[in-house]
Hints:
- This protein has helices at residues 109-112, 164-167, and strands spanning 8-10, 18-21, 26-28, 31-35, 40-42, 52-60, 74-80, 91-97, 99-100, 122-124, 128-131, 148-153, 160-161, 174-176, 191-194, 197-200.
- It contains two helices and 16 strands.
- Helices cover 4% and strands 34% of the residues.
- The protein starts with 7 loop residues before the first strand and ends with a strand.
Amino acid sequence: MAIFKGRVRVRYGYSRWGYTRNNGKGWHGGSDEEGLDSTTIRMPDYKGKSISGRVVTARKVDRSTGSKTWEWGWYVCVELDAGQTPDAVNCLYFCHNARNLVFAPWGDMEEAMCKNDIPLYALESGDALAVMGSTGNASLASPPFAHCHFEVRATAAGAGLDPTAYTGHPNAVGTYGEAIDETEDSDMKFLEVTSGKCEVF
């Protein structure tokens, strides 16, 4: 399971992971993944193997705080369960979201409890995380385009590591994956909390 159902595109050379900006002098810690057939960001697998984890952060940081995290806009951080992959990756980041579909354990628990008492912060490959967007510094692009800045790290404060085992494609500009018939996820259900009641729409 890739980050999106169907095709994904890495649009620009500077959208790749590594020293891809400012003529090779600027660091880009992740891969800018653009879903072409679906806007729903999903928990990926690792080289075709299903993986699991839990949401540790699902938020937006205001630019006025001075934290560089504002650049990610709305984002989700998933901490992988231990011992699943042979690499150093422990944290997956999904950034620039239009909105998040999951919650951290200390987040909006009233809304989280609407899903039959199953905590929305426990995840496995294929689970929906967010809707692709252009929040944070992605809104400053000319022109802005909706995508997911996907970054993998060993620690929350560490540098971005090679994400290709999780994206399922090379660290290169191109379009990857197979087209799907529908242009949006037809099986998606969203929860709305009104007057203390949960409604699925």
